[in-house]
């Protein structure tokens, strides 16, 4: 990835030349190295040619759309992705996150908001607490399931691959790092996002519910609710 002395390297993928140029200039002024691509083919060339720390990916691209590219990226790596789109429908945001995007921003947007989201995603993915996972942790097996941390997906007992959203991936990583340990909502929020916990905000409950849904009928028995305390991954986890 990126060491502390070097600027993060971003890849902006958008078929609009003016938008690519504008974002490259603005992100460059903010201290980032920036490369650009007009479509999926150019994106892959850039990723093969150099190390990239984060991709800013437009949803509405010719030939291969952003959702397809995001899904393919997520199947191969844990590279952070922020999706951009001119669409404003909630379903598009949900689809983007379900394909594995780490964040989502609708056009038009303030450049400062994109910068804030980039900084937040990079901080979340590259500056996680040291005790979140051992550096050698690549895979976790439990109850017939395989959680592939390198490729950021889940494989069910029948061998089917389930794509995880950014939030689902981070939350499951916290659970497999602390099996059979009750984690409070505050701990889950801090460990999965690095953000302070707002006692009035129960978004973490929705995230847990969505993660459980990935496991189908086994979800409720795997990730249990402990009344007045939080949640627990109630099983033995074997890690690689």
Automatic annotation (TrEMBL):
GO biological process: regulation of DNA-templated transcription
PROSITE patterns in the record: OMPR_PHOB, RESPONSE_REGULATORY
Protein's name in the database: Response regulator transcription factor
Entry-linked InterPro entries: CheY-like_superfamily (IPR011006), OmpR/PhoB-type_DNA-bd (IPR001867), Sig_transdc_resp-reg_C-effctor (IPR016032), Sig_transdc_resp-reg_receiver (IPR001789), WalR-like (IPR039420), WH-like_DNA-bd_sf (IPR036388)
Domain Response regulatory: residue ranges: 9-122
UniProt entry tagged with the keyword Transport: no
Positions bearing 4-aspartylphosphate: 58
PANTHER family per record: DNA-BINDING DUAL TRANSCRIPTIONAL REGULATOR OMPR (PTHR48111:SF4), REGULATOR OF RPOS (PTHR48111)
Coiled-coil parts of chain: none
Domain of life of the native organism: Bacteria
GO cellular component, one term: cytosol
Keywords assigned by UniProt, alphabetized: DNA-binding, Phosphoprotein, Transcription, Transcription regulation, Two-component regulatory system
Transmembrane intervals: none
Pfam families: Response_reg (PF00072), Trans_reg_C (PF00486)
GO MF terms held by the record: phosphorelay response regulator activity; transcription cis-regulatory region binding
UniProt DNA-binding residue ranges: 137-235
OmpR/PhoB-type domain boundaries: 137-235
């Amino acid at each position: 990835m990126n060491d502390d002395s070097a600027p993060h390297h971003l890849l902006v993928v958008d078929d609009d030349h003016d938008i690519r140029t504008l974002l490259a200039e603005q992100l460059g002024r903010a201290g980032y190295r920036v490369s650009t691509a007009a479509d999926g083919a150019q994106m892959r060339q850039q990723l093969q040619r150099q190390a990239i720390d984060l991709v800013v990916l437009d949803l509405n691209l010719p030939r291969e759309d952003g959702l397809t590219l995001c899904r393919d990226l997520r199947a191969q790596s844990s590279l952070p992705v922020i999706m951009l789109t001119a669409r404003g429908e909630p379903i598009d945001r949900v689809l983007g996150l379900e394909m594995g995007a780490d964040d989502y921003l609708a056009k038009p947007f303030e450049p400062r908001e994109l910068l804030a989201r980039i900084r937040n995603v990079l901080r979340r993915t590259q500056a996680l607490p040291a005790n979140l996972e051992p550096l050698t942790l690549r895979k976790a097996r439990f109850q017939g399931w395989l959680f592939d941390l390198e490729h950021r997906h889940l494989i069910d007992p029948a061998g089917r691959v389930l794509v995880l959203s950014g939030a689902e991936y981070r939350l499951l990583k916290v659970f497999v790092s602390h099996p059979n340990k009750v984690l409070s909502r505050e701990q889950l929020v801090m460990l999965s996002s690095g953000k302070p916990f707002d006692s009035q905000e129960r978004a973490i409950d929705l995230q847990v519910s969505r993660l459980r849904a990935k496991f189908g009928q086994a979800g409720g028995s795997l990730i249990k609710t402990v009344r007045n305390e939080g949640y627990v991954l109630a099983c033995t986890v074997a890690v690689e």
